[in-house]
Design goal:
Layout: E1 2-7, H1 9-15, E2 19-23, H2 29-37, H3 43-46, E3 54-57, E4 60-61, E5 73-77
């Protein structure tokens, strides 16, 4: 399925981009994050499982168990962001 991923603040800086369109078979936020990490750098460092990262699904904060579907927008950002 196709989804749109957005990156904010320090994650955007380490990824070197603010968004990307992505093809995935992941069904949850957690499985998407694991799939991205497995792709190596810069994903592995930016989205490492030990890092505190907030996630929004279609502009609503969600937990890692949230289900994703075709054309969803997933945003990754650190717990505290600046202006």
């Amino acid at each position: 399925m196709k989804i749109n991923i957005k990156y904010f603040a320090s994650i955007r800086e380490s990824m070197g981009r603010s968004e990307e369109h992505f093809e995935t078979s992941a069904s949850t936020i957690e499985s998407l994050r694991v799939a991205l990490i497995s792709m190596g750098e810069p994903y592995a460092q930016s989205l490492a499982l030990g890092k505190a990262i907030r996630v929004a699904l279609n502009q609503e904060l969600v937990s890692s168990e949230a289900l994703i579907k075709e054309n969803d927008e997933i945003a990754f950002f650190p717990p505290v962001t600046g202006g």
